[in-house]
Specification:
two-stranded antiparallel ribbon; 5 helices; 2 strands; single chain; mainly alpha; Arc Repressor Mutant, subunit A; 66% helix; MarR family winged helix-turn-helix transcriptional regulator; MarR/SlyA-like
């Protein structure tokens, strides 16, 4: 990019990138709803499943991962517990610390959604790879 600032093709690439991201996110939200969950619950279950710790992430960990405030995560987890997707477990060493783990139903729902996402990302990959390459 020149010191003169962005040019028309730069704006077009940025707009195309943002449109692609928005399209994917809208698709993802629709798939979550199709399977009877909310987009936020999908993000929560994915964050819980992706966490490598055996006890699962804490509420604080989830707040950081999801970029939400602690009280918002508490409410999200409350609703996901009611939906049967996750469960809370108190830390055995630190009683005030709460870990979140998937239930069998949550594992099953997440597996269905993750399979759909992986297939969709595979179809989008060539287009997105080409677009990202234009920024290099």
């Amino acid at each position: 990019m020149s010191t003169r600032g962005p040019r028309q093709p730069d704006y077009e690439r940025l707009a195309a990138l943002r449109a692609g991201i928005r399209d994917y996110l809208a698709w993802a939200e629709d798939r979550a709803r199709d399977l009877g969950t909310t987009p936020a619950q999908f993000q929560l279950t994915l964050a819980v499943r992706a966490d490598p710790r055996p006890d699962g992430p804490t509420l604080t960990d989830l707040a950081a991962t999801l970029r939400l405030r602690h009280h918002s995560v508490v409410g999200l987890v409350d609703r996901a517990v009611e939906a049967g997707l996750v469960e809370r477990r108190r830390d055995t060493e630190h009683g005030a610390r709460v870990h979140v783990r998937l239930t069998p139903q949550g594992e099953e729902r997440l597996a269905e959604l993750a399979a759909l996402h992986l297939a969709e990302v595979a179809t989008l990959a060539p287009q997105m790879r080409a677009l990202w390459g234009e920024f290099g």
